[in-house]
Design goal:
Layout: H1 2-8, E1 14-16, H2 28-33, E2 40-42, H3 52-57, E3 62-63, E4 68-71, E5 74-79, E6 82-83, E7 92-93, H4 95-110, E8 118-122, E9 132-133, E10 136-137, H5 141-146, E11 152-154, E12 163-167, E13 170-174, E14 182-189, E15 196-203
Parallel strand pairs: 1-2, 2-3, 5-8, 6-7, 8-11, 11-13
Antiparallel strand pairs: 4-5, 9-10, 12-13, 14-15
Length: 204
């Protein structure tokens, strides 16, 4: 992580799309967030214990799980954990719960005074985009339902699925595993109709 921060240059905000630990311990979260001198938006992944929410809340990071945070003109919303997996990992949610949480957040984001871009930081990808394993697509169908109501989805979960994919006008970005030196620099430029989003994949 130190190498990633050193090589990333002058970024404004860091986003971490979950799996902050490998099944714990939660105390590692504070150590990770202390590395940054810029704002960090973070969510838990399915391989984090649910108790990590408290660790995030007491760290330097902004815990974005289930929340709306506006920074400048950009409206960020976050959804940690994943839809159900065959592995019974610690932080899994039903599609119904994912839909309920997203419905509330997106409604709140759409009804703010500022109408800048909406960015969803989600651990799980939407079904059909950056979610393919040898046995098929494993992303969240609930996230897919809301994909066209956000401009950008930054996700993780499927470690083999680094890259970009579009769902209509919505860009889905999986930056890859930070523990293997992968990250992405994302630039969002204001435009009259649709924001211009530029993604550069990096490796250290």
């Amino acid at each position: 992580m130190e190498k990633i921060i050193d090589t990333a240059g002058d970024f404004d905000i860091a986003m971490i799309a979950g799996d902050l630990t490998h099944f714990g311990p939660d105390a590692k979260v504070k150590e990770l967030m202390e590395m940054f001198d810029k704002p960090v938006l973070a969510i838990p992944g399915n391989c984090d214990q649910k108790s990590i929410i408290k660790a995030l809340d007491t760290s330097k990071a902004i815990n974005l799980h289930g929340k709306l945070e506006q920074i400048g003109k950009i409206r960020f919303i976050g959804l940690g954990g994943s839809n159900f997996t065959p592995f019974n990992t610690p932080f899994e949610l039903s599609e119904e719960e994912i839909e309920r949480v997203l419905e509330g957040m997106i409604y709140s984001a759409e009804n703010t005074d500022d109408h800048g871009p909406i960015v969803l930081l989600a651990h799980a990808p939407p079904h059909g985009a950056r979610d393919e394993l040898p046995f098929g697509h494993v992303g969240s169908k609930a996230i897919l339902k809301f994909a066209d109501r956000v401009d950008l989805i930054v996700c993780g979960h499927i470690h083999e699925a680094k890259g970009i994919e579009n769902i209509g006008a919505t860009m889905v970005v999986n930056p890859g595993e930070a523990c293997k030196g992968f990250y992405a620099l994302i630039t969002i430029e204001d435009a009259e109709s649709k924001p211009i989003i530029i993604v550069e994949f990096k490796e250290v």
